[in-house]
Amino acid sequence: MTVEKQDIKIISCNLRQDHFPYYLIEYQAKNHLSYQKGDNIWIIDTENMQSIVTVRSVKDYTAEIYMSKQYENTIIGNIKVWLLFSPITSIEGASEIMKVTEVFPPCHYEKIVSFIERENEISLQIFLEMDNRTMELCLSNIEENRLVDYEDENIILQLDFSYCDNGIKIDIDSITGLSGTVVCKKITAQWI
What we know:
Radius of gyration: 17 Å
Number of helices: 2
Shape: globular
Largest sheet: 7 strands, mixed
Mean pLDDT: 93
CATH class of the largest domain: Alpha Beta
CATH architecture of the largest domain: Alpha-Beta Barrel
Number of domains: 2
């Protein structure tokens, strides 16, 4: 997938509150941003700091985003943005998961309760404590598998998705247990 960087100017950035805090930004650009709910966007801010934000919504020249409070001031001004990953576009079943979780879960401090590895396919069952539900991720058409250390207890620090030349790259950073990288062509997600 080809990802195009865009130059935009952030005019304002205001904290809002719903179920989770988010920021309402107003921007100027040659074209409207075409991101959708749940998209993960790379940003290089006015101090050349890189961060990832998650899109809540985009309409006209405003966007609602989830981001760390530390970027609140450095995002105002001329910045660069580009798509890192779109769960709704690239994970079959992501919309159903996001009806419950708002964004596709990064699985901070969540437990992997099942890990099954078959030829050219991996199944991960992750218990989402906040939602008291288990999500199953099926990774298929595996191009590369560098997962290691499945143990009795497997707690995720962060689950990241990004596009790469061979498909979709999934990085599992763990506190304990299963960690590593998988590159695959297809991902499905469902509640079990």
